[in-house]
Amino acid sequence: MSEAVAERYARALFEVAKERETVDAVEEQCQLVGTTINQHRELKSVLSHPQIDSKDKKAIIEQVFKKEVNEEVVNLLKVLIDHHREGIFNDVVDEFTAMANQHRGIVEVVVTTATPLKEKEKEKLAETLGQTLNKKLRIKTKVDPDVIGGLLVRIGNRLYDGTMAGKLARFKQELKVAR
């Protein structure tokens, strides 16, 4: 349910940003707001507290973000506060980013490895996957030691498992079947 609601807010924000040709700026500023709220526990606590008046929350938003963030993002936050939906802001940002990427023809790829990728490795991976998919890619990397080795690549809702952990799990399954 909250995904559908987040998608509606993101769609409205995206349409306004597209019309004003500020999609990139709005995306960047939404990321900034999300990071700021998540990194400051007090701010997050105040914004999510049900007994704090909406007017007070909006005043805090104005004070904290008005100089750093454009009108569209501040207005989105105020609308979310008015409808008691502050908690879905990150979901709205995710949906907005997906819409912006689709608009730009960019595919977001999440690559999980056991150790951090070097910049050259990221560039080579982006080039290779980009040629394969015939798209521009935005690669985000994650580190998970449980991967052991290899790559776990998520493109949209598809998952490509080239990890040692995945290979070991498949091998284990084959052994069970062979018994």
From TrEMBL:
Return the InterPro entries for the record.
Answer: ATP_synth_OSCP/delta_N_sf, ATPase_OSCP/d_CS, ATPase_OSCP/dsu
State the source organism's domain of life.
Bacteria
Tell me the keywords, alphabetical order. Answer: ATP synthesis, Cell membrane, CF(1), Hydrogen ion transport, Ion transport, Membrane, Transport
Question: What subcellular compartments does it reside in?
Answer: Cell membrane; Membrane
Per its database record, what is this protein's job? Answer: F(1)F(0) ATP synthase produces ATP from ADP in the presence of a proton or sodium gradient. F-type ATPases consist of two structural domains, F(1) containing the extramembraneous catalytic core and F(0) containing the membrane proton channel, linked together by a central stalk and a peripheral stalk. During catalysis, ATP synthesis in the catalytic domain of F(1) is coupled via a rotary mechanism of the central stalk subunits to proton translocation.
**Main localization of the protein?**
membrane
Q: What organism does the record attribute this protein to?
A: Scopulibacillus daqui
Q: What is the name listed in the Swiss-Prot or TrEMBL entry for this protein?
A: ATP synthase subunit delta
**Which NCBIfam families would you find in this protein's record?**
ATP_synt_delta, PRK05758.2-2, PRK05758.2-4
How is the protein disposed in the membrane?
Peripheral membrane protein
Q: Which PROSITE patterns match?
A: ATPASE_DELTA (PS00389)
Record family assignment:
Belongs to the ATPase delta chain family.
Q: Would the keyword Cell membrane turn up in this protein's UniProt record?
A: yes
Gene field: atpH
* SUPFAM superfamilies, alphabetized: N-terminal domain of the delta subunit of the F1F0-ATP synthase (SSF47928)
